[in-house]
Amino acid sequence: MNLSATLDRVLTRYHDLGRALAEGPGRDARQFGQLSKEYSDMGPVVQAIEALKRAQKELEDLEAISADKSSDKEMREMADAELRELKAKMPALERQVQVMLLPKDEADAKNAILEVRAGTGGDEAALFAAELFRMYQRYAALQGWKFEVLSVNDTGLGGIKEAQATISGRNVFARLKFESGVHRVQRVPATEAGGRIHTSAATVAVLPEAEEVDIQVNDADLRIDVYRSSGPGGQSVNTTDSAVRITHIPSGIVVAIQDEKSQHKNKAKAMKVLRARLYEAERSKKDAERAAARKSQVGTGDRSERIRTYNFPQGRVTDHRIGLTLHKIDKVMEGEALDEIVDALVTNDEAERLATLQ
Q: Exposed, middle or buried: residue 60 (CB in 10 Å: 0-12, 13-18, 19+)?
């Protein structure tokens, strides 16, 4: 990336937009709105660029004073000290601007659909899936996000076969998108008399919530079945056909929701999940096309990929994609230390994408 030329292009575009907006909306109010949004979005980037340019100019001035042997010795020494301090700050200023200039994932600002499913390991896997679901619920609360449970299929023993939730707030998908994959747990189950460590797994999927404008679903492509909801062990918990199963025929995607007593509410929730899965499938297709030109982000995000291990006997959590290990499993499971893992994943993703632009 030729940083200087890129910065000049951004500033030119910003000033051109400012002049266009000053002329008013004219006849095309829709285009005016788009230009206004682009101008607003560019504001923080332009501020960072201007801060970098001021630092570069200050650097040049200090270098000139330092190199001028005819100037006062004390002034040169002061300039040298300021020069060292400013040179130490420059890489961070440049990186900040470069990160802000990286192509944005259009889904980053969206809310997310969280899906957690028990994997291999029977009852222990179901218990771990329930703990992961609670971990994300606690993390969402700490972030000030809204966590709305869509559906829970529990085992009746404190575990869950699968659970879904909507998480709403600022930059939810941007922060959680690297959580998709297989989460493995190593510990001694409460039912294990011999004290042997068992390995179980749960699958996490984080999907950007899609609006109707993002994904158009044709009613003719849907098969909707209604049935009576059931509890653990198949016992009937509802005497009406309120549970809803929607099958998207072209893709084969099936979504079933039975938590609400209202068939209408269950259908609305199922459609929300279906749109998210269809939107993610479209994103994955585009990502696969881009991956032909460069390696994909942090891991593949594939649900079959083991991304993290939670080792309870040793009190550690290891993210295998970036080789990060935290010896604070309790705080991670409480959602408190999850930010440390998320921050590291986001930083690594930025570094990998920056490397492809060099």
A: exposed
- For 105-124, what is each residue's pLDDT tens digit? 777 888 999 999 999 888 89
Q: Rounded distance, CA 40 to CA 43, Å?
A: 5
CB neighbour list of residue 263: distance below 8 Å, 6 or more residues apart: 226, 240, 241, 242, 243, 244
CA distance 3 to 5: 6
Residue type, 299: G
145 vs 5: CA distance, rounded Å: 39
Judge contact between 133 and 240, C-beta under 8 A.
Answer: no
Distant-in-sequence, close-in-space partners of 9: CB < 8 Å, separation ≥ 6: none
Predicted TM-score of the model (pTM) = 0.67
- pLDDT at position 357: 62
Q: How many residues does the chain have?
A: 358
Share of the chain above pLDDT 90, in %: 37
* Tokens, residue 60: 């040049």
Structure tokens at 262: 């209202």
Q: Is the pLDDT of residue 126 over 90?
A: yes
Q: What would the DSSP string read from start to end of 86-142? A: HHHHHHHHHHHHHHHHSPPPTTTTS-EEEEEEE-SSHHHHHHHHHHHHHHHHHHHHH
**Amino acid, single-letter form, for residue 93:** L
What was the pLDDT predicted at 324?
Answer: 95
**Integer Cα distance of 178 and 322 in angstroms:** 11
